[in-house]
Amino acid sequence: MYAMTGIIQGNTVLTNDSSLKKYDGRKVIITVLEDEKQFDTLPDEKLYAMSDSLIDQNIEAYQELAK
Predict the structure, then answer these.
(1) What angle (nearest 5°) sits at the alpha carbon of residue 43, between those of residues 41 and 48?
(2) What is residue 62's DSSP assignment?
(3) How far apart are CA 4 and CA 67, in angstroms?
(4) What is the reported pLDDT for 38?
(5) How far is the C-alpha of 38 from the C-alpha of 35, rounded, in Å?
(6) Residue 8 dihedral angles phi and psi, to the nearest 5°
(7) What backbone torsions phi and psi does residue 9 show, to the nearest 5 degrees?
(8) pTM score, two decimals?
(9) Pairing between strand 7-9 and 12-14?
(10) Residue 55: is it exposed, middle or buried by C-beta count within 10 angstroms (0-12/13-18/19+)?
(11) For position 65, what pLDDT does the model report?
(12) Bridge partners of residue 59, in order along the sequence
């Protein structure tokens, strides 16, 4: 699993992460956070907790992707 941030522009998600090339062609789940601030810096621990929470909320979608 890999987590990163980006901006949606039209039907494209823009990122500054060139390491995504190794994931080319894989299925993804996009979570849009409703937040007035587009970019926040978070400590790793908080990011991991948020990621775990999102996974728990979307476990059925992840199980469908795994099929």
Answers:
(1) 110
(2) H
(3) 23
(4) 60
(5) 7
(6) -85, 130
(7) -135, 105
(8) 0.39
(9) antiparallel
(10) middle
(11) 79
(12) none
Does residue 2 contact residue 23 with C-beta atoms inside 8 Å? yes
pLDDT value of residue 35:
65
Mean pLDDT of successive 10-residue stretches along the chain, which has 67 residues: 81 83 82 68 81 84 80
In SS3 terms, 17-56 reads as: CHHHHHHCCCCCCCCCCCCCCCCCCCCHHHHHHHHHHHHH
Contact between residue 47 and residue 37 where contact means Cβ atoms under 8 Å apart: no
Helix (H, G, I), strand (E, B) or coil at 16: coil
CB within 8 Å of 13: residues ≥ 6 apart: 6, 7, 30
Residue type, 32: V
Structure tokens at 23: 């994931």
